[in-house]
Write a structure and sequence with these properties.
With about 180 residues, this protein is of the alpha/beta class. The protein contains three helices and nine strands. The chain has a single domain, classed as Rossmann fold. It starts with 6 loop residues before the first strand and ends in a 6-residue tail after the last strand. Bound molecules: inosinic acid and magnesium ion.
């Protein structure tokens, strides 16, 4: 028995992921020269992406994390967002770049954007590894940096979970449907 047995299809291999992350890191390095960059990772899904991405950013920067809940153990957004862990940093004066694993309905990030803008960051942008634009419920919510646009499929791995499992896969896969239907 291996966790790989639960995967129906590999969507992004380890090598493809590395290429995307390195490209994003270069772009961010260019765009944030001379700025006061604070990377804010959204726990827990973004940790793998964040850990890789920050090592491709060749700038002095700081990191912080927030934890929110919106999904529970389902594959559908509940629409409710709760702050489980707040920032340790006062973001005023920082160029905040939010690091998210996946942008789906957009409810989580819309809520965060509204909350953080009250804290007067110098600037605020969003970087997401995956974007599922077909699923957007908040139309004006757009990410500034997107690793890959994907169709409406539920994916796991590289930090992304189903019921808290599969975050430790080093690729992105689609789960066998019988496991969540
Ligand atoms: P949103 O508020 O609907 O945009 O939800 C975003 C959050 O839902 C992400 O941070 C993930 O935790 C979760 N999510 C959305 N789509 C997927 C998926 O395909 N796989 C795993 N988690 C997902
Ligand atoms: Mg999740």
């Amino acid at each position: 028995m291996s966790i790989h047995d639960d995967i129906q299809e590999v969507l992004f291999s380890k090598a493809q992921i590395e290429e995307i992350v390195s490209k994003l890191g270069k772009q961010i390095t260019e765009d944030y020269k001379g700025k006061n960059l604070l990377l804010v990772g959204i726990l827990k899904g973004s940790i793998v992406f964040m850990a890789d991405l920050m090592r491709h950013i060749d700038l002095k920067c700081k990191i912080d994390f927030m934890a929110l809940s919106s999904y529970g153990d389902s594959t559908e957004s509940s629409g409710r967002v709760r702050v489980l862990k707040d920032l340790n940093t006062d973001v005023s004066g920082y160029d905040v770049l939010l690091i998210e694993d996946i942008l789906d309905s957009g409810r989580t990030l819309a809520h965060l954007r509204d909350m953080l803008s009250l804290c007067n960051p110098k600037s605020f942008k969003i970087c997401t590894f995956f974007d599922k634009p077909e699923r957007r419920a908040v139309p004006d919510l757009k990410a500034d940096y997107v690793g890959a646009i994907i169709p409406d499929k539920f994916i796991v791995g590289y930090g992304l979970d189903y019921a808290e499992y599969y975050r430790n896969l080093n690729y992105i896969g689609v789960l066998k449907p019988e496991l969540y239907q």
